[in-house]
Amino acid sequence: MLNKRAGGSAGWRKSLWFLPVVLGVVPVTSMLHAADTNYDESAVVAYTLPDVLAGPDGRPAATPEDWKARCRPHQFALLENNVYGRRLPPATVMVVGELERADVTLAGGVQATRLQVRLRLGDGPQAPTVDLLVYLPKAPRPVPVFLYLNFKGNEAEHAAPAMLARGYCVATACYDDIFPDKPDGRAGSVLAALGRPVDGELAPDEPGAIAAWAWGLSRILDWLVRQPEIDATRVIVVGHSRNGKAALWAGACDERFAMVVSNESGCGGAALERRNYGETVADITKRFPHWFCPAFATYAGREVEMPTDQHVLLAMVAPRPLYVASAIDDRWADPRGEFLAAIAAEPAWKLFGVEGLGTAEWPPVDAPVGTGRIGYHVRSGGHDLLEYDWQRFADFADRNLPGVQPPDAGPAAGVFRPAQDMLPVPPPPGAIVLFGDGSTPPAFTAMNGGPIDWKVENGTLVVTTTKGHANHIVSKERFQDADIHAEFVVDPAAHGNSGLYLHGHYEMQIYDSFGVEPPTEQDEGALYRFGPPLVNAARRPGEWQVYDIRFIAPRRDSAGRITKAGSVTAWLNGKLVQDGLTFTEPRSPYTPYRHGVTDYLRGVEKELLSTGRGPLFLQDHGSPTRYRNVWVRPLAAE
Ligand code: GTR
User: Fold this and answer.
1) pLDDT digit string, tens, across residues 472-510
2) What is the pTM of this model?
3) Is the CB of 246 under 6 A from ligand 1?
4) Angle between the 72-79 and 242-253 helix axes, to the nearest 10 degrees?
5) Ligand 1 geometric centre to CA of 264 (Å)
6) Handedness of CA 488, 494, 499, 501 (dihedral sign)
7) Ligand 1 near 241 CB (within 6 A)
8) pLDDT tens digits, one per residue of 232-283
9) From the candidates 189, 218, 241, 475, which is the catalytic residue?
10) How many Cβ atoms are within 10 Å of 635's Cβ, its own excluded?
């Protein structure tokens, strides 16, 4: 069981069945509001907000490109330097132990798959871990996700059946796993593990808890986007109160979040600092000195001198959809100040030619507004995250998220999402294993049809290299369209060059390409001579890597001429590297039918051209690449 906190999974399960369906969390705060807090709108000082579109020289962005290249980085740096601290670097995210998966029935009879997984953020056994709880709706295709941090631990979270019934996945982790929420929490936080200073005088732009929570959300996202059941293009980050501040900063730092939702995030979140209404910079930095970078506290009582304000934080989300939610009795969070920040952020959306809120009037309670890419409501009642709020977030997401897949989308549009998270991957039903773990002989022949001379060592099949680079091996299996899986380790010799020759005509590249930017048609993930990978997903030599390829073979007429292009969709190490790339005649002069060809292979190619069925080759290119778990799963012909 994966629960780190008291209560454990038994307690969690119980809560599923017996607790009322409340979609949210009650924060653990005792509101020690200052006696001199201003709640009088007429006593709010006049202020001028910094221009949200301004670049470093004050000149505002004129186009989306100008915003992205010149003005957004400038505005982002102002938030880093003055509020949250420097953005933290990425880290490797790996599963620790077993992923736990169970079918569960939630309140109202909603069927779901529950995943519980412990993620290690960073390298080495000492790296911090986060326990993630995920509820997946039963759906035939990848689903959008609401991701949020909770306050009390996953076992205290009440599942979100209503969201699941609307087709959304819900994923949550406890914020304390990332940064224990107390002034001296730094030493036990991910910041310490990232090598940031934990005591002594901190630099003015040293990140605090909010930066750490935002970073944790991005690391969870790293894992979520690798899951086949999840639509990586529609992960929504949500947060309530202090976690709402973190959600906004996460959305600013990481543009992979497709939509950002702030629920009553208030001071240091969605509310304008310049408005002296509710919580102030002095209040928040006194009680929560660990949340922000040290520079923020210096603006206590002089908010008007800040070179930024919270509308800038909201503008970082543009042109993605943003939802800001307030509650009318939550005056400490300054509901009107949250609305005004959303209005002041609008120019960033307008620059992209999209509508923001579509109104400048603060709406009545329980009457959501936002016909464009910004949504807003002020709910009746106090500081909380309630089902009402969740339902409005989902309404807004339904309207605004791009990339919604129509029910009849074909395989290349997203259904082919192989699990690559945990290696080795067991062969699925219907797979023809060409080489597994070495317990049965490799189902390959040499180029002349005879036995292969590649060695099986420690359960891996190792390329026997030759100077001529043509000691490839040929699968005994012949197939037309197929899903192809291979796990491999690259050796530094000869650039780690090897490859998967699909039908012997088209090569999915294997190469020592770690860190190469931008990757080219030579690099790992490329279909050699047809297209570079969409992203560089290559791992270092010595590490296990994994390819899953959906290969749709070209079709030929009886004279051998191509009548319909072929295509590949390929995943490499959890990333989509080819998305339906099409190809026709082979382009490489090095195919096994030309370079190092034998009589046997002439026969193989002839058969391929007449039947459309051919083998998979593993390539010798002078590097002792290791393979395991190589299989093909033939697809039904179109
Ligand atoms: C309060 C704090 C607010 C808000 C809230 C919460 O004490 O002053 O800014 O973050 O806590 O997170 O519940």
Assistant:
1) 999 999 999 999 999 999 999 999 999 999 999 999 999
2) 0.64
3) no
4) 150
5) 9
6) negative
7) yes
8) 889 999 999 999 999 999 999 999 999 999 999 999 999 999 999 999 999 9
9) 241
10) 18
